[in-house]
Amino acid sequence: MQPTAEQFTEKAWAAILSAQQLAQKRRHQQLETEHLLQALLEQDGLASRILEKAGVTPAALQSSVDSHLTQQPALQSPPESVYLGKGLSDLLDRADSLKQDYGDSYISVEHLLLALADDSRCGRRLLSQAGAGPWLAQKGHQRCARQPDRDRSEPGGLLRVP
Predict the structure, then answer these.
(1) Is the Cβ–Cβ distance between 56 and 136 less than 8 Å?
(2) Alpha-carbon dihedral of residues 155, 140, 23, 17, nearest 10 degrees?
(3) Domain harbouring 57, CATH code
(4) What is the DSSP letter of 140?
(5) DSSP letter assigned to residue 7
(6) Which of 38, 39, 60, 150 is geometrically suited to a Cys-Cys bond with 18, CB 3.0 to 4.6 A?
(7) Is 147 among the domain residues?
(8) Radius of gyration for the alpha carbons in the chain, expressed in angstroms and rounded
(9) Are the beta carbons of 40 and 47 closer than 8 angstroms?
C-alpha cells in the first residue's frame, strides 16, 4: 500500500509523517515498522493510553524501540528521500484489512497498533516483550464494544480507553 492522507485518521497520518521524519533524522533510507512504533509512542496520545491499559510502561517500550532503531544501518548523512520498506508496507496492508474487517472508513491508531502486534519485523517481539502483544491480540478479536467511526478527527474505537 502506498499511503495517502485520505486513508488515515488525522492522528494515524501524523504518526506516519513523524515516522518519516524520524527515519530521516536517524539517517535511515527505509521507513519501517520500528519508525512507526516510535512515532506512535512519541505522540503521547491514544497509543500510549492503550498500551498503559495493557500494563505497558510506554517509556520503557520507547527505550526498547530506540535500542532497536540504533542497531539499524544508517547512512553517512540524512537521505534526501526515505523509501517505504517492505515491513511497513505489509503492516499498512494489514491495518487496511483490519479497517475493512471492522467496517471503518479510515485507518486509525488502533488499527496500526493491532497490526504492529502482528508485525514479524519487530513489532510483535517488542510489544510482546513489553507485555502488550497478547492483550492487543485478544482485544483485536473482541468486537462487542465496537462503535462506528464518527469522522477522521474523532474515530470510534476498537480498544475502549477511558
Answers:
(1) no
(2) -10
(3) 1.10.1780.10
(4) H
(5) G
(6) 39
(7) no
(8) 15
(9) yes
Quick one: which H or E segment has residue 130? helix 123-130
pTM, entire model: 0.85
For residue 107 the three cell numbers come to 485507518
Residue-number span of the structural domain to which 31 is assigned: 5-141
Single-letter amino acid, residue 134: P
Looking at the domain assignment, is residue 82 inside a domain?
Answer: yes
In a domain, 156, yes or no: no
Q: What is the helix (H) or strand (E) element at residue 126, kind and residue range?
A: helix 123-130
Specify the number of domains making up the chain.
1
Q: In 10-120, which residue ranges form alpha helices assigned H by DSSP?
A: 10-25, 33-42, 46-53, 58-70, 86-101, 109-117
pLDDT tens track for 118-158 = 899 998 899 889 888 666 666 654 533 445 544 556 455 55
Cell 536517524, located at residue? 26
